[in-house]
Amino acid sequence: MSDAKLRSVLSALAPVASQLSTLPAGQPAPDGSYVKLNTNENPFPLPDIVRQGAIAALERQYLYPEDDNLGLRQAAAASYGVPTDHVIAGNGSSELLGLVYRAFLAPGDSVAMVSPGFTFNRKLALLQGAQFLEIGCLDVDSLPTEELLHGPARKAKFILLANPNNPTGTFVPVKDIEHLVAESDRLVVLDEAYVDFAPDNGLRLVGRYPNLLILRTFSKSYAAAGIRVGFGLGHPELIGRLRNIQNVFSMNVIGHAVGLSVLAHRDAYEENHRHIRDERERVTTALSHLGFAVAPSHANFLLARVPAGHDGRWWQAALEDRKILVAFFPDKGLEDRIRVSIGTRAQMDTFLAAVSDIARSAPFAPRLTSIG
Ligand SMILES: Cc1ncc(COP(=O)(O)O)c(C=O)c1O
């Protein structure tokens, strides 16, 4: 294609897309030699019974998946104790998040997120040409309710919060969320991606408040991040509108099969969840002996403040040199932290040994006690 022709093609881009730069070709995914603790996946294989369902679904590869995900929605509704018209299923909860942004935001509108939060939301707002308001409450286990209701966020088309929150791991009591939902006349999107690792959940509020949408995913607690299964639970009027703007066949037959099978065998994950919780405690203690400050987490990751002397980016790079991937966020207030997903015991031992090694050899090394 000639330069002139390419320029002509690009000049036809809609305003939002034309403001975004072309993505680079991309980097290869890290190979299996890396310990991957940067995106909060669950480190374990699917339970056998769920795996068998996924393999059997391959035999239906020549058919489109079920229209409107009806069977999966029915199964989720039965499992979560709500009517089927209260449920939307999607290709991961991020597809459902995208639908909410498309449904509610026009250029110039605003959306408010309790911050720091799941950064993907920033991009979704940008794609709608909307203003993204981040209402901060780092390290605090309570909601900035007054600011959300009466501050600049009062004009937001919807309010977003994750509970437990990513990347802080903090958990807000459900009664505080109920208070916000009851007081607000806006939609509140309660993202419960990590809720199976937490002490409570907001499911009982669905049906009581028409302005609440709960999002769930099987990516974290059900070890299905690569299969992409997510649900939204809320008022049928809202759910019906989201289903209406969803891509046809956005899920695939394997996602359907795994979704159904997980819903039928949620108890097969008890040991998995116990492991994550136990390991979370063990690594929290070990990291604090190594000079890190770790806030209690209610999710499958830890947000750790690194010892004085270096910032989070430095620790991320030092760990990557040892083939261990953790997350770093350049946002204000997070520069001195790393986020570490909870993996298998062997992965966490490798991580802790590397941290200990780095801390000993680093200039400004913190004073260490034993790993514990
Ligand atoms: C808070 C939160 N919500 C949603 C998601 C997306 O999950 P899914 O894999 O279901 O798209 C993530 C993934 O990291 C997350 O942290």
What does this structure look like?
With 372 residues, the chain is an alpha/beta fold. It has 2 domains: 1-45 and 269-372, Aspartate Aminotransferase, domain 1; 48-264, Aspartate Aminotransferase, domain 2. It is 37% helix and 15% strand. The protein contains 13 helices and 12 strands. A 7-stranded mixed beta sheet has the order 2-8-7-6-5-3-4, with helices on both faces. Helix 6 (120-127) links the parallel strand 3 (110-115) and strand 4 (131-136). Helix 3 runs antiparallel to helix 10, helix 4 packs parallel to helix 10 and helix 5 (93-104) packs parallel to helix 6. The longest helix has 20 residues, at 270-289. 44% of the residues are buried. The site of pyridoxal-5'-phosphate has 13 residues, from helix 5.
Labels describing this entry:
372 residues; alpha/beta; Aspartate Aminotransferase, domain 1; Aspartate Aminotransferase, domain 2; 2 domains; seven-stranded mixed beta sheet; three-stranded antiparallel beta sheet; 13 helices; disordered C terminus; binds pyridoxal-5'-phosphate
Radius of gyration: 22 Å
What oligomeric arrangement do these chains adopt?
A: single chain
CATH superfamily descriptor of the largest domain:
Type I PLP-dependent aspartate aminotransferase-like (Major domain)
Q: What percentage of amino acids are in beta strands?
A: 5-15%
* CATH-defined architecture of the largest domain: 3-Layer(aba) Sandwich
Name the helicity range: 25-40%
The outline comes out as globular
Mean pLDDT: 94
Whole-Å distance between the termini?
A: 62 Å
Q: Determine the number of helices (DSSP H or I, runs of at least 4 residues).
A: 13
Strand runs, count: 12
Instruction: Catalogue the unreliable spans.
Output: 367-372
Topology pattern, helix = H, strand = E: HHEHHEHEHEHEHEEEHHHEEHEEH
Bound molecules: pyridoxal-5'-phosphate
How many domains? The number is: 2
The fold-level CATH name of the largest domain is Aspartate Aminotransferase, domain 2
> How many strands, which pairing sense, and closed or not: the largest β-sheet?
7 strands, mixed
The first-level CATH class name of the largest domain:
Alpha Beta
Strand order of the largest sheet: 2-8-7-6-5-3-4
